[in-house]
Amino acid sequence: MIVFKIILLFTSFAFAYYGYNCLRTNLMISEFKRFGLTKKQRQLTGMLQIIGATGLVLGLFHSWIGLFASGGLAVLMVLGFGVRLKIKDSFLQAIPSFVFILINGYLFYVFLRLI
Fold this sequence. Notes:
The chain has 115 residues and is mostly helical.
């Protein structure tokens, strides 16, 4: 269970950090333009990532919240991976979203077993 918690906390931090950057940094503003996504889509992505990160941590106390958070983040990463494929990014550029699909799938599985 300690490995699960470490993975969960790492993932939560990563999504909170990326979500904040989606909302605040010029680098992410330019990246979302490169992705062909709108300002609203960038802001929604950032907010969903922050909410998902918070939900993962709350999942340590209420498994059903973690279940929804990990499932939602997995879906978000599937969409992100799809965008990377659509704009023909290299596999190396698409790897992070694919890895986070797998990680959130694992978290979802563990939360499902805890309910």
